[in-house]
Amino acid sequence: MTLPWHLYLMAFLYILAGINHFRKPGMYIRIIPPVFKNPELINILSGAAEIILGLLLILPATTTFAAWGIIVLLIAIFPANIYMFQNKKAGFGLPRWILFVRLPLQIILIYWASQYIF
Q: Residue 38 — left, alpha, or beta (φ > 0 → left; ψ -120 to 50 → alpha)?
């Protein structure tokens, strides 16, 4: 069974993002709100989850499971996007409008993942 190209694109993007958690951990640790303890562990777990879920997306038997996992992951990391918007240091000096646009982008990404559930 051939999967649609946009599913491969999604898988590639999550795998790439997950790898980046290990290549540049400081970038991700910086955006984890201080209320969460052990940001290094959170970074490792979220990076590993992105890689694993990205790989599972391209296996027809696990696509639905992976899509649900990505939706849960996107909801779980949403506090980091809010923290980036609220905290200048966590926002990497990006303009506030870009940080604001990132917030509803999560909804678009959740919608994209939901296309592989039904």
A: left
> pTM higher than 0.85, yes or no?
yes
Residue with tokens 């599972």: 56
Q: Can you give the pLDDT at residue 1?
A: 61
- Give Cβ neighbours of residue 42 (< 8 Å, ≥ 6 apart): 32, 36
Among residues 83, 88, 86, 81, the alpha carbon closest in space to that of 104 is found at 81
What sign results for the dihedral spanned by CA atoms 83, 88, 94, 100?
Answer: positive
Task: Determine the Cα–Cα distance for residues 4 and 85; give it in Å rounded to an integer.
Answer: 34
Number of helices (H), then strands (E), in the chain = 6, 0
Extents of the domains making up the chain: 5-114
Q: What is the pLDDT of residue 7?
A: 96
Helix axes 78-86, 96-114, angle to 10 degrees: 170
pLDDT tens-digit map of 62-94: 999 999 999 999 999 999 999 999 998 899 989
